[in-house]
Write a structure and sequence with these properties.
The protein is mainly alpha-helical. The chain has a single domain (2-174), classed as Chitosanase, subunit A, domain 1 (Up-down Bundle), CATH 1.20.141. Helices cover 60% and strands 3% of the residues. It contains eight helices and three strands. It has helices at 2-25, 53-62, 67-74, 80-91, 103-114, 116-122, 129-146, 154-168, and strands at 28-29, 39-40, 43-44. Helix 1 (2-25) crosses helix 5 (103-114), helix 5 (103-114) crosses helix 6 (116-122) and helix 5 (103-114) runs parallel beside helix 7. It starts with a helix and ends in a 9-residue tail after the last helix.
Length: 177
């Protein structure tokens, strides 16, 4: 019985994390300045070119479908494929089931935004959500310092951290933005 309860809690944490991710990631994006390239709901095409959703994206792009309309049409497809990618390649890789809430969601979101290795490195020496998020903000600042073309993303990156703080009930007053 305890094993079933633990499994249910783990699934609920992942589902809760996905609620945040789907809100934060939106739909189709193809910003030429974004190093990730073309994405759908945060999934980079260059990293996951085999996903079925890209066939639909290509068909819509071939018809010069406006992005807003593309997102409406793409939202009709199942999110199962996207959820599977997130679960298997981010949640499990970062061992988020072993992390306490809200650190699990913070590390998961960080992995999506910065990669699994970077997210796991932020756990070194701390499990304090504020300290982890400060490391993330510091990393954004470093990225912009090294490549000023990324300055256009600062506000969005900071807002995502602030939204994550709100979602996870983590005080953002202690983070140096």
């Amino acid at each position: 019985m305890k094993l079933l309860q633990k499994e249910k809690e783990m699934k609920n944490n992942f589902n809760s994390a996905m609620d945040f991710i789907f809100k934060a990631e939106g739909g189709f994006v193809n910003n030429p300045k974004d190093r990730g390239g073309m994405t759908y709901k945060g999934i980079c095409r260059k990293n996951y070119p085999e996903l079925k959703i890209w066939k639909a994206v290509d068909e819509l792009l071939a018809c010069n479908t406006p992005v807003k309309e593309m997102n409406k049409k793409l939202s009709l497809y199942s999110d199962k494929e996207i959820r599977d990618v997130y679960y298997n390649n981010y949640w499990k890789v970062c061992d988020c089931d072993a992390l306490k809430n809200p650190v699990d969601i913070i590390i998961f979101d960080t992995a999506i935004n910065m990669g699994t290795a970077r997210a796991k490195s932020f756990l070194e020496g701390t499990n304090d959500p504020v300290k982890i998020l400060q490391k993330r903000v510091d990393r954004y600042n470093y990225i912009i310092e090294k490549d000023p073309s990324q300055e256009c993303f600062r506000k969005g990156w900071y807002n995502r951290v602030k939204d994550l703080c709100d979602y996870c009930n983590v005080p953002k007053d202690y983070i140096d933005f």
